[in-house]
């Protein structure tokens, strides 16, 4: 009798968990973007969750909570109820690299957040000014090594992907090339054209027009494959350097959300990404679709941190 009762109770628990997962979302979902309106993560979030809302019939509210390198919004999500009603769409910073760049944070991205899905990726393109003689990465590393204080490189800010990419390459050349931070890709491209700086690693969409116009020169795509926007530009790996990190955007929620709910979130977001209009919008922004679920995305973050940790430490990069 007791065995039968236990079996019935256990079966009821399984059914309850299944219904709970299948029912996501059961109420209004708040999607936090830790950057301002019009930013890339904001655009991606609105694009995806417009489709999720249509598919599920449940309200999806995108909210911007910017500031502190994305940490204000991330902290808000980390402290939210673990019921799947609050999500965040963000780049690597709030989900990963800030933990390597700041000595103190108000949340731990690895303990307080639960990865849901990797939703987008983009490589960067290593470009140089026209006064740089190099035409490939081997020549550029040699030119960097021989530099007598004439070269510098730019990025959109300390700790950004463009900064970390270039810091790695400068270290590989055993060179001492100064870093200059600019506010955004347009100003960096202007500086490259004027010869104020000599190198940068920027998104393909940002550099493509000036590459095609012959105003700056591409050296390599930094990523696992060539960019669909610049198919004639080889990757670093094709040129003998096995280094291919990408810029990425992912979804996370509060730690403690049941695994079954995380999987249903992933399923619904992946379904939204299948919409042809989403793919078209991604391409217009120079983005590539990605689909890693909760466990795979968690492993991806761990591997990414293993890549960046020594680079950040060896180059003494900090935002404190």
From TrEMBL:
Positions of transmembrane segments: none
UniProt KW Nucleotide-binding keyword: no
Residues annotated as signal peptide: 1-21
Keywords carried by this UniProt record: Signal
Entries under InterPro entries matching the protein: BUG, Bug_dom1
A Pfam match: TctC
Similarity comment text for this entry: Belongs to the UPF0065 (bug) family.
Protein name, per record: ABC transporter substrate-binding protein
Source organism: Candidimonas nitroreducens
């Amino acid at each position: 009798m007791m065995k039968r009762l236990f079996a019935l109770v256990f079966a009821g628990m399984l059914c309850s968990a299944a219904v709970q997962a299948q029912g996501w979302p059961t109420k209004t979902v708040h999607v936090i973007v830790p950057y301002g309106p019009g930013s890339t993560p904001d655009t991606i979030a609105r694009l995806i969750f417009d489709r999720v809302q249509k598919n599920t019939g449940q309200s999806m509210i995108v909210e911007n909570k910017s500031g502190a390198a994305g940490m204000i919004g991330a902290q808000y999500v980390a402290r939210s109820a673990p019921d799947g009603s609050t999500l965040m769409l963000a780049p690597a910073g709030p989900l990963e690299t800030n933990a390597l760049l700041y000595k103190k944070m108000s949340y731990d991205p690895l303990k307080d957040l639960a990865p849901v899905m990797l939703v987008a990726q983009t490589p960067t393109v290593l470009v140089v000014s026209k006064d740089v003689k190099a035409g490939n990465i081997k020549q550029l590393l040699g030119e960097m090594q021989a530099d007598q204080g004439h070269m510098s490189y730019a990025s959109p800010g300390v700790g950004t992907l463009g900064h970390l990419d270039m810091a790695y390459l400068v270290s590989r050349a055993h060179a001492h090339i100064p870093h200059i931070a600019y506010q955004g890709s347009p100003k960096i491209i202007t500086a490259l054209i004027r010869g104020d700086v000599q190198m940068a690693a920027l998104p393909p969409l940002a550099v493509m027009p000036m590459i095609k116009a012959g105003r700056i020169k591409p050296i390599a795509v930094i990523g696992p494959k060539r960019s669909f926007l610049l198919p004639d530009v080889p990757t670093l790996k094709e040129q003998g350097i096995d280094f291919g990190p990408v810029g990425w955007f992912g979804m996370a929620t509060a730690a403690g959300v049941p695994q079954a709910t995380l999987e249903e979130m992933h399923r619904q977001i992946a379904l939204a990404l299948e919409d042809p209009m989403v793919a078209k919008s991604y391409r217009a922004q120079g983005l590539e679709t990605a689909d890693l679920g909760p466990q795979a995305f968690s492993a991806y973050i761990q591997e990414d941190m293993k890549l960046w940790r020594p680079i950040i430490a060896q180059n003494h990069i900090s935002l404190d």
